[in-house]
Write a structure and sequence with these properties.
globular, 4-stranded mixed sheet, alpha/beta, 316 residues, Carbamate kinase
Length: 316
């Protein structure tokens, strides 16, 4: 078992939704309780933990509600959708952790921090918006929103039209020092939800929200670097990383070096929409001073920390 220290654990937003029949807020809370139970196993082993999370489905729900109610109420800007989802998921996780600590008789506290992530206004992603969000529309509605609201819209695989927004890279996390101070005080923090609420710094230094989404693994990686985390954990749907995934010669990996991870990316081993950003985020963490990272599914976090499963990624 490795020596405990500070860990950032990234939980997927999709992990809160088991299937289409379990999407309600209470269903999401029940799924969150399960994830936090597994993270508490890690905390019980002595780790000081920051839990980060995705929010893609939840932001989609907020946007859809906003669109459906637009004939009566103002619509919610995308950065505020991110903030709303951070608050709701932060509340779910903090409550679940507080109850978990009570039941285990652990002297720990949890706190959720609404987190802003700075992106560069010059990021090329703003010139090439590519992340689909919100509801499907017919072409006439899409063109109207494009003209009246300045949306970027695309036809999405024959299923209708959707809005697309930029997905810029994170460059700074406004609340990193506050999160670090809470961790130093022994408090388990929930933060950097959805990669953080995207903001830019204006010429005068003021922050301004922007219509964009940040990859939660890249936001989590940056936070792990900024607070000097000893370990970066990405919790996902699989117990281990594989090469030749879903092929007859598929191979599960116990360990990857930084060089091997880069080589497998070059070979196209990791899917763009799933494992690739996770491996890229871990590479960034290791290149920026991090020592080790772990990918596994929530139910195996406790075992993986003991070295019994999961895929470990290290510099050498």
């Amino acid at each position: 078992m490795i020596k405990a220290g500070i860990a950032v654990v990234a939980v997927g937003g999709n992990s809160l939704i088991k299937d289409k029949g379990h999407q309600s807020v209470n269903d999401q809370y029940i799924a969150g309780v399960e994830s936090m139970h597994h993270i508490a196993d890690m905390i019980a082993q002595g780790w000081e933990v920051v839990v980060t999370h995705g929010n893609g489905p939840q932001v989609g729900f907020i946007l859809r509600r906003s669109e459906l109610a637009s004939h009566e109420l103002h619509e919610v800007p995308l950065d505020y959708c991110g903030a709303d989802s951070q608050g709701a998921i932060g509340y779910m996780f903090a409550r679940a952790l507080t109850n978990e600590f009570k039941n285990r008789k652990m002297d720990k506290k949890a706190a959720a921090v609404v987190t802003q992530t700075v992106v560069s206004k010059d990021d090329t992603a703003f010139q090439n918006p590519s992340k689909p969000i919100g509801s499907f529309m017919d072409e006439s509605e899409a063109k109207r929103r494009e003209k009246e609201d300045g949306w970027n819209v695309v036809e999405d695989a024959g299923r209708g039209w959707r809005r697309v927004v930029a997905s810029p890279k994170p460059v700074d996390i406004v609340e990193a020092d506050a999160i670090k101070a809470l961790v130093s005080a022994g408090i388990v923090v929930v933060g950097v939800g959805g990669g953080g609420i995207p903001v830019i710094r204006k010429e005068n230094g003021d922050l301004e929200g922007v219509e964009a989404v940040i990859d939660k693994d890249f936001g989590s990686s940056l936070l792990a670097t900024m607070i000097g985390a000893d370990l970066f954990v990405i919790s996902t749907a699989v117990e281990k990383v594989a090469i030749n995934f879903n092929k007859p010669n598929m191979q599960w990996l116990d360990h990857l070096t930084l060089a091997q991870a880069k080589q497998y990316i070059e070979e196209g081993q990791f899917a763009k929409g799933s494992m690739l950003p996770k491996i890229e985020a871990i590479i960034k963490f290791l290149e920026n001073g991090g020592e080790k990272a772990l990918i596994t599914n929530p139910e195996n976090i406790g075992r993986a920390i003991k070295g019994e499963t999961g895929t470990w990624i290290t510099k050498k």
